[in-house]
Design brief:
278 residues; Beta-Lactamase; alpha+beta; 5-stranded antiparallel beta sheet; 2 domains; 5 strands
Length: 278
């Protein structure tokens, strides 16, 4: 599980984005220069062609041959400029695509930073689950999913929150049984090779399973069954977001459960004390 990116890493990413933007601007300026040079050569070639067509201006045969040679040279130069223009245009498109990818990554990481701050700002288990649900919807783009946590008493993974499907429709899972159980046992992410778009949901065959681990001890699993319509497939950035989300969600969930248990025990002890003092 990779560690969250530090502020200096984010600053480096913003520098990279600025560098790509400057390269993109320089490419655009070079493209404009090529276009102007191409236009000048084209007009010059037309002038020479017109000169050759006019017998009064054409002059001797030797001069005509020189002009023809010059036209051929200009045509070669024009073709070379066109080739360079196409190369620069292709590079510009690549720079623009990479710049947009970096900008999207920066935005998602910034959103994840805000979401992780919210996750660790509360010890209420219900609030933690609600924040995780919002992150999965807004950052990941999932439509149907569930969060399963390990029940220490039964040893089963049981749904504690869901979206787009009722918790009662998702059966408990033992580690090692089925796709979800195997992920919980191995502690490794699972991504389906193909994302189905037929809208069918099979609770036994999710498209994504992300284990929630604390020091290699799996305390739960995020299970995704269906993506939003505008989310056709997963990207490399999604894989990184899943890893970061799993780490923050696992820590926040574990802390909130410990706090809830300690609160219940404290309440029980306080009840006994009150009973004894009375």
């Amino acid at each position: 599980m990779s560690a969250p990116k530090r502020p200096e890493d984010k600053a480096h990413q913003f520098d990279r984005a600025e560098e790509f933007l400057q390269m993109f601007k320089k490419g655009a300026e070079f493209t404009q220069e090529l276009l102007r040079e191409n236009e000048r050569l084209r007009f010059r070639a037309i002038e020479i062609e017109e000169l050759l067509k006019d017998p009064a201006r054409k002059g001797s045969g030797r001069e005509g041959a020189k002009l023809i040679t010059r036209i051929e040279e200009l045509e070669k130069e024009r073709q070379e400029l066109l080739r360079k223009y196409e190369e620069v245009e292709s590079e510009n498109k690549d720079f623009a695509r990479r710049y947009l990818e970096i900008e999207e990554e920066n935005n998602n990481l910034a959103n994840l930073y805000v979401a992780s701050y919210q996750l660790h700002s509360t010890l209420d288990s219900d609030e933690v689950l609600q924040i995780i649900i919002e992150i999965i919807i807004n950052l990941i783009g999932a439509e149907v999913f569930a969060i399963l946590l390990l029940d220490e008493k039964t040893g089963e993974l049981k749904p504690v929150a869901s979206e787009g499907i009722g918790k009662g429709e998702i059966p408990p899972v033992r580690p090692g049984d089925g796709r979800i159980g195997l992920v919980a046992k191995a502690g490794e992410n699972y991504f389906a090779e193909h994302v189905p778009r037929d809208g069918h949901v099979d609770t036994n065959e999710p498209i994504v399973c992300i284990p929630l681990s604390i020091k290699k001890h799996v305390i739960g699993v995020i299970v995704i069954y269906k993506l939003l319509q505008q989310k056709p497939e997963f990207t490399e950035l999604d894989h990184e977001l899943f890893t970061l989300l799993a780490g923050h969600a696992a820590t926040a969930t574990f802390a909130s459960r410990l706090y809830s248990e300690s609160e219940r025990k404290l309440s029980t002890i306080q009840g006994f004390i009150d009973l004894l003092t009375k």
